[in-house]
Write the structure tokens for this entry.
Amino acid sequence: MTEELSAPPPLPDTGVANTPASNEWYYVANGARQGPMTAQTIRDLLTKKQIETSTQVWRKGMPEWELLRESDLRDLVAAEPPPVSSRHGNGYVWTLALLPLVIGVIEAVVSASNQDAAVRSLALGIPYHPSRGLPFQVPLVVNALLGWLDDRRLQQAGYGSRTTRVTAVLLAPVYLFLRAKRLKQRPYYAVAWIISMIAGFLIYASVEG
């Protein structure tokens, strides 16, 4: 029979020795022990998204740290919404994933048009004025807008975080991987973005070459 513990399993602690009561909880944040605190405080932290259902927790009587969603606090997350369905409402993220391919095709069309125009101008002896492709700001703005809109939808569903909010605007591929992890889905969109980027580059390079 396992003997009840009077202190949490070893972790970098606050430097203060505690002998917690059975209703006092600890959790792990950035590798350090936080607490003690009541279950209600844990609930508040969870509601504010300051901790996750995957956060490790412990109280007196537990032989080791457990994930919050698998501990005696599991009832606190029973009302959490299920992952967003991958079958609907993913228009923003699919557009974001395929955007590099779209940009590559547009640039390739502009380049091909310039080459045709150059040949015609040379044949007719008239000045040649090449068309310009998309300003580099356009893909950046569109990426940021799509990422923000998709992350906003996740926020409304209760799955957003500060990290996804920042990466959604600044780092699309990183955001897509974090999004998949957050929703417990396979990273289809992130893989699609990588393939889209490669395909778009190859299409543009084939025209330029």
Summary: The beta strands are 25-29, 32-37, 56-59, 66-67. The two ends are 74 Å apart (CA to CA). Residues 91-208 form one domain.
